[in-house]
């Protein structure tokens, strides 16, 4: 054999490497030892993170880059640990409509760390047209022949970056169309939710990935109670699947139904990744009733100066082999330090009391000592961590109950402008005494006192609206609208700048009330009051109320589009979200199609699954625009009794079952079924 030198170039995710073969090709030497990493054929390695909140305070001179630096660290950690994929538990973005800078930074980081030639070593067994039915490209991104994906990212949406607008798009949908993120767990129905898992297999390990994006807690709570949430399972070899569930809801109780109890979840789950809660409780805790484990990674940035945010931030490295798991917590070094202390003035009678002369100066000097002590602690803690930002977040909560007076917090905070990252709100005054003022009428409500109560930290606008009407007298109670509906409309106005949300809700409810009274033949004011009382009680906290709010919001969004104010998400006309079911079926799951490149990627094996689900209900018809009575013109309900003509509606969307999309040419089927205990 003739002597020759052959150099084989191997493309690596980290850097190009070469393997030079000696004469006669009898031996070889690896010049780049990182080309062939040691991997386990049966172990999934998954990086878990939630609530990254990209873009939070991005215009702040000190804290503007915090979220981007931490996201860079998270992705770098995933690449260094050679994970199979990244699982995000919602709220990747802080704003519903992130800025161009925020989107640009996110896309750049995902392209930097998640694209490359590293082979993907797991297969997707489920019907991807079902898993990613809301995408224009309904298959996992690493199987797209036009993309080189080395680390797939799977994510559900949160309450900050949830779908909105006439087409129901969110920022994750932009990343999905760009092939950077696999957006799953989205449900469009407000009547029933079927959670179909993404079925993955690596060697002998089978993983069922469940997910559900953020839904208003009260609505989801009610759907769980009414058995309207179904989690589909593989019918074959159920005991061989590791079941991983991702959810983005309230875990701690904020009200009677404003959270999701762990007991609502199915007991066949193995691990639940809980997003939305910002306190880092990443060590898995066992639910003794349902016998699964729950991990709460928490946020990677402090978005509020509360005790839960002061816990050290971590992400998780999950290893799954068969039905066994191991979760390793990894500390984040780029997170800005946050220290918080509580000071109760009445607990220091030896230092000061309200009757002392110049007591405010004594209190202020004592508070300054506390703040300086926290700053010194932060400096000691930062030693040896060059990635940690220099200026920490400091919060001193001062309880001045018992006759003390608050000093000037702004002037006090300015003393530390060069030492802390939050010089405007270092000190925060609170009172333990609860607000028990008797509200006699709308003109007597002290919103300043209501908002200044310490419990309002983190309180939602809709909660404040509900609290106001619950404490108000009957003369200022709502009659046509409900507290929950008005609260949601105000929340849309505040969070998403839906300027017409409140007006459209009132218009829609007034039109519906007029038609109802006409059909009932009600004429006198007394009969109107009785009828409205019955109608109001029957629809409180029901799906009908959710439907009314959603229709009103859709009308508000349609008006905004007509004025040209919604060009950043979509330029298309107003379309019902449920109308996607009438579109042409998506193309079948595609393989890499790379031919001679020999990438060694995990190929979809052609396995699909059948859903034992009943056909989905038809999409709710959307009414076309018609002339309406303006409720702001001072007319009472008797004057406005003449209702506008009945508006024509679009035809309902035809029901469709997953079974309609199964091709008879596939030889392997992985069947899913609905558990017998679901009605």
From TrEMBL:
Comp. bias intervals (Polar residues): 624-635
Biased composition (Basic residues): 591-600
Catalytic residues (positions): 160
Classification lineage: Eukaryota, Metazoa, Chordata, Craniata, Vertebrata
GO CC annotation: Mre11 complex; site of double-strand break
Gene (name only): mre11a
Localization (cell): Chromosome; Nucleus
Acidic residues composition-biased segments: 567-583
Domain of life: Eukaryota
Function: Core component of the MRN complex, which plays a central role in double-strand break (DSB) repair, DNA recombination, maintenance of telomere integrity and meiosis. The MRN complex is involved in the repair of DNA double-strand breaks (DSBs) via homologous recombination (HR), an error-free mechanism which primarily occurs during S and G2 phases. The complex (1) mediates the end resection of damaged DNA, which generates proper single-stranded DNA, a key initial steps in HR, and is (2) required for the recruitment of other repair factors and efficient activation of ATM and ATR upon DNA damage.
Residue span of region Disordered: 516-665
Name of protein: Double-strand break repair protein
Biased composition (Basic and acidic residues): 531-543
UniProt keyword list: Chromosome, DNA damage, DNA repair, Endonuclease, Exonuclease, Hydrolase, Manganese, Meiosis, Metal-binding, Nuclease, Nucleus
Record organism: Oncorhynchus tshawytscha (Chinook salmon)
Alphabetized GO MF terms: 3'-5'-DNA exonuclease activity; manganese ion binding; single-stranded DNA endodeoxyribonuclease activity
BP terms from Gene Ontology: double-strand break repair via homologous recombination; double-strand break repair via nonhomologous end joining; meiotic DNA double-strand break formation; mitochondrial double-strand break repair via homologous recombination; mitotic G2 DNA damage checkpoint signaling; mitotic intra-S DNA damage checkpoint signaling; telomere maintenance
UniProt similarity note: Belongs to the MRE11/RAD32 family.
Cofactors (names): Mn(2+)
Stored Pfam families: Metallophos (PF00149), Mre11_DNA_bind (PF04152)
Domain Mre11 DNA-binding: start-end pairs: 325-493
């Amino acid at each position: 054999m003739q002597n020759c030198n052959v150099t084989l170039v191997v493309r690596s995710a980290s850097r190009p490497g070469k393997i030079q073969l000696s004469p006669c090709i009898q031996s070889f030497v690896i010049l780049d030892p990182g080309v062939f990493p040691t991997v386990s054929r049966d172990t999934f390695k998954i990086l878990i993170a939630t609530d990254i909140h990209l873009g939070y305070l991005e215009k702040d001179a000190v804290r503007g880059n915090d979220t981007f630096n931490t996201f860079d660290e998270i992705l770098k950690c995933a690449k260094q640990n050679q994970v199979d994929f990244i699982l995000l538990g919602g709220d990747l973005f802080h704003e519903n409509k992130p800025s161009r800078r925020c989107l640009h930074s996110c896309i750049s980081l995902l392209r930097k760390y998640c694209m490359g030639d590293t082979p993907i070593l797991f297969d997707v067994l489920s019907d991807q047209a079902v898993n990613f039915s809301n995408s224009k490209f309904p298959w996992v991104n690493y199987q797209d022949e036009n993309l080189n994906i080395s680390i797939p990212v799977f994510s559900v949406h949160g309450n900050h970056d949830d779908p909105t607008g006439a087409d129901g798009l969110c920022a994750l949908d932009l990343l999905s169309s760009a092939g950077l993120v696999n957006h799953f767990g989205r449900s469009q129905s407000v009547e029933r939710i079927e959670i179909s898992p993404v079925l993955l297999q690596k060697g002998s390990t089978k993983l069922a990935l469940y997910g559900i994006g953020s839904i208003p807690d009260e609505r989801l709570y009610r759907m769980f109670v009414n058995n309207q949430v179904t989690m589909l399972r593989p019918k074959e070899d159920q005991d061989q699947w590791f079941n991983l569930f991702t959810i983005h809801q309230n875990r701690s109780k904020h009200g009677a139904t404003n959270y999701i109890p762990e007991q609502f979840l199915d007991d066949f789950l193995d691990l639940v990744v809980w997003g939305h809660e910002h306190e880092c409780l990443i060590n898995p805790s066992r639910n003794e009733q349902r016998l699964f484990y729950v991990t709460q990674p928490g946020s990677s940035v402090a978005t509020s100066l509360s005790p839960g945010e002061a816990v050290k931030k971590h992400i998780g490295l999950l290893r799954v082999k068969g039905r066994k798991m191991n979760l390793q917590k990894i500390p984040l070094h780029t997170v800005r330090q946050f220290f918080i202390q509580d000071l109760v003035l009445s607990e220091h009678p030896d230092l000061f009391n309200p009757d002392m002369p110049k007591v405010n100066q004594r209190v202020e000097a004592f508070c300054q000592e506390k703040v300086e002590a926290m700053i010194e602690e932060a400096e000691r803690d930062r030693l040896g961590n060059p990635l940690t930002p220099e200026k920490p977040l400091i919060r001193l909560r001062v309880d001045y109950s018992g006759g003390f007076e608050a000093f000037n917090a702004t002037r006090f905070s300015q003393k530390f402008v060069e030492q802390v990252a939050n010089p405007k709100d270092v000190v925060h005054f609170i009172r333990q005494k609860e607000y028990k003022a008797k509200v006699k009428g709308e003109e007597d409500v002290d919103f300043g006192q209501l908002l200044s109560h310490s419990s309002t930290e983190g309180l939602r606008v809709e909660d404040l609206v509900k609290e106001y009407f619950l404490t108000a007298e009957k003369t200022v109670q709502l009659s046509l609208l409900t507290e929950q509906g008005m609260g949601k409309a105000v929340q849309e106005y505040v969070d998403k700048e839906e300027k017409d949300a409140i007006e459209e809700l009132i218009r829609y409810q007034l039109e519906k009330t007029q038609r109802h009274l006409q059909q009932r033949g009600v004429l006198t004011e007394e009969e109107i009051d009785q009828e409205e009382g019955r109608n109001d009680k029957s629809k409180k906290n029901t799906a009908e109320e959710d439907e009314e709010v959603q229709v009103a919001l859709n009308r508000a969004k349609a008006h905004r589009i007509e004025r040209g104010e919604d060009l950043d998400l979509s330029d298309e006309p107003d379309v019902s979200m449920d109308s996607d079911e009438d579109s042409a079926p998506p193309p079948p799951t595609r393989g890499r199609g790379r031919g001679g490149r020999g990438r060694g990627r995990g190929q979809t094996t052609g396995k699909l699954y059948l859903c034992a689900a009943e056909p989905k209900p038809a999409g709710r018809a959307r009414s076309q625009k018609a002339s309406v009575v303006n409720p702001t013109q001072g007319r009472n309900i008797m004057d406005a009794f003449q209702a506008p003509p009945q508006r024509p509606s679009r035809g309902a969307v035809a029901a469709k079952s997953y079974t309609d999309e199964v091709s008879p040419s596939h030889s392997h089927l992985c069947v899913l079924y609905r558990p017998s205990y679901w009605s």
